[in-house]
């Protein structure tokens, strides 16, 4: 599945050995037709998993998550990074430490929208060190919900998030796998299914 790889080759920019800029279609501007294809790809990858809910994190996870929810016909819940006025009671929370930003933040989801009967597909834009995904997994466990798997649009396999999640027995499907970045150059893993 070369969809994401081709898009990165056309529009992505490796800023350095760590960070890929994809502002033109995912992290600032969103390409809706491309995102719909992302939704189709995740729906296909997790076909037959009886998913009842998509869970993501604001803000850049929302676009791919909504498209996946559209295709699967299930609601999309996004974790908040700041508690809002209306988000007060029955919160499920997790601490997420960002190695990239070197700061910790609390992510929250209302228990009202995540229940024991749910089968959850976690979607995110990037899978790097996996801290966001681990926090969302923790929140699902607090809710007693089942996790069907994790879908990442772009996985940077040179960081260890994917390994940590797969070691826990979680199904992880990434639509593009980046093995290395150099300023101005992106290297992909040869065989990527989905
Ligand atoms: P982790 O959850 O996998 O441990 O990731 P990390 O802390 O390293 O990531 C912090 C933020 O940086 C996340 O966005 C993540 O999506 C983003 N990120 C990580 N690697 C890259 C990269 O190579 N390119 C880009 N463009 N973003 C990257 P966030 O702070 O949650 O912001 P938002 O975009 O969702 O609002
Ligand atoms: Na992001
Ligand atoms: Na994200």
In short:
By secondary structure, the protein is α/β, with parallel strands linked by helices. Helix content is 30%, strand content 33%. It has a six-stranded mixed β-sheet with strand order 4-3-7-8-9-10, with helices on both faces. Strands 1-2 form a two-stranded antiparallel sheet. The protein has a two-stranded antiparallel ribbon with strand order 5-6.
Supply database-style keywords.
single chain, 194 residues, alpha/beta, Rossmann fold, 6-stranded mixed β-sheet, two-stranded antiparallel ribbon, 30% helix, binds guanosine-5',3'-tetraphosphate, transmembrane helix, glycosyltransferase, Xanthine phosphoribosyltransferase, PRTase_dom, xanthine phosphoribosyltransferase activity
Number of alpha- plus pi-helical segments: 6
How can the largest sheet be summarized? Answer: 6 strands, mixed
Q: What strand order characterises the main sheet? A: 4-3-7-8-9-10
Could you tell me which ligands this complex binds, including any ions or cofactors? guanosine-5',3'-tetraphosphate, sodium ion
In CATH terms, what is the fold-level topology? Rossmann fold
The radius of gyration is 16 Å
Choose one word for the global shape: globular
Which architecture name does CATH use?
Answer: 3-Layer(aba) Sandwich
Distance between the termini: 6 Å
Mean pLDDT: 95
Strand residue percentage:
25-35%
Helix proportion range: 25-40%
């Amino acid at each position: 599945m070369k969809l994401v790889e081709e898009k990165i080759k056309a529009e992505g920019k490796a800023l350095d050995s760590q960070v890929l800029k994809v502002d033109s279609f995912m992290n600032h501007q969103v390409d809706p037709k491309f995102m719909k294809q992302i939704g189709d790809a995740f729906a296909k990858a997790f076909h037959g998993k009886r998913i009842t809910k998509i869970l993501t994190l604001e803000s850049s996870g929302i676009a791919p998550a909504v498209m996946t929810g559209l295709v699967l016909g299930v609601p999309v819940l996004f974790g908040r990074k700041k508690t809002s006025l209306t988000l007060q009671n029955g919160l499920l929370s997790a601490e997420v430490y960002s190695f990239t930003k070197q700061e910790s933040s609390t992510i929250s989801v209302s228990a009202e929208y995540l229940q024991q009967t749910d089968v959850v597909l976690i979607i995110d834009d990037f899978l790097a060190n996996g801290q966001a995904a681990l926090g969302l997994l923790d929140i699902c466990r607090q809710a007693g919900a089942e996790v069907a798997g994790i879908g990442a649009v772009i996985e940077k396999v040179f960081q260890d998030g994917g390994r940590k999640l797969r070691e826990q027995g979680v199904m992880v499907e990434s639509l593009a796998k980046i093995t290395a970045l150099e300023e101005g150059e992106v290297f992909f893993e040869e065989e990527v299914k989905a």
